[in-house]
Design a protein that fits this description.
- The protein folds into 2 domains: 128 residues, Response regulator (Rossmann fold), CATH 3.40.50.2300; 124 residues, Homeodomain-like (Arc Repressor Mutant, subunit A, Orthogonal Bundle), CATH 1.10.10.60.
- The chain has 14 helices and 5 strands.
- The longest helix has 17 residues.
- Helix content is 47%, strand content 9%.
- A 5-stranded parallel β-sheet has the order 2-1-3-4-5, with helices on both faces.
């Protein structure tokens, strides 16, 4: 599944700080609602709160606004490195200090106001959390032994949600089969069953988010739509045999290996 196809299933969520009307208009035109969800933050507190309310794919910061919160918002990139930050600047002489700060904070890029408008969506979404997560896991890991057409297509759909909750009814409808048929054929010949694989992918995303200094386990549970941090904890122990506090130090390959050691089957 391409990044473009994945974005049609799950629109990118982008938090934006844009005091200038000119920049808000550019963003509205560059990120249509069908493909993107824009959260406009008015203050540093609003901007930070957005990361703890839902999964943010990328952040856009108007560096040329002159607003007193701009520097504090830019500094949040250190708390949430998993979601790339992009600056927007007119590139006037007065923008120099904040553009330099953006570079020192490892911003993914600085878009030039009036020059990069047409390419803004492509530049931002292709480097967002969901796009990178989908690309990294595009093919099912060999250890999972998912090789049939139904298994591969289901895996692609689940991965495209980048850890967000997936309803098996919606997945079955997407594949053009019944939920019962999907569950039965996905787990055929000793393969892990579908619900466990969905949970595994959610935990892979949770592990990536846990590596962000700005998140604690409760935040990760919230943005990935677990019922509670206790739900995330019980899922981690059931699916990969660890406590959620260990997620931040483990790689995806480590979690997949733990999953294959007797955690791949459950009741449908």
């Amino acid at each position: 599944m391409s990044t473009e196809a994945a974005s049609e299933i799950v629109p990118s969520t982008i938090v934006v700080f844009a005091p200038r009307e000119r920049v808000r208009t550019m963003i509205k035109n560059a990120f249509p609602r069908r493909r993107s969800r824009i959260i406009l933050a008015r203050t540093a507190a609003d901007f930070s709160a957005a990361f703890r309310a839902e999964l943010i794919d990328a952040a856009l910061v108007d560096l040329s606004s002159g607003h007193e919160d701009t520097a504090a918002i830019a500094a949040l990139s250190r708390d949430f490195p998993g979601s790339p930050f992009f600056g927007v600047a007119a590139m006037l002489g007065s923008d120099g200090p904040l553009v330099a700060q953006a570079a020192s904070l490892d911003f993914a890029d600085v878009l030039v106001d009036g020059v990069d408008d047409a390419s803004a969506r492509e530049l931002v979404t292709r480097r967002g959390f969901s796009a990178r997560f989908t690309a990294a896991l595009r093919l099912p890991p060999e250890a999972l032994a998912l090789a049939t057409d139904v298994q591969v297509r289901a895996w692609e759909y689940v991965v495209a949600h980048a850890g967000r909750r997936v309803q098996t009814d919606a997945l079955a409808k997407h594949l053009g089969v019944t939920r019962e048929h999907l569950s039965r054929t996905f787990a055929a010949d000793g393969a892990p069953n579908l619900k466990r694989v969905i949970d595994l992918v959610r935990l892979l995303a949770a592990a990536e988010l846990s590596k962000n200094p700005g998140y604690d386990i409760r935040d990760v549970a919230t943005v990935l739509d677990f019922a509670s941090s206790s739900h995330l904890s019980s899922t981690a122990q059931r699916v990969v045999g660890i406590k959620p506090a260990s997620l931040a130090r483990l790689r995806s390959v480590d979690l997949i290996l733990r999953f294959t050691r007797g955690h791949g089957r459950s009741r449908n």
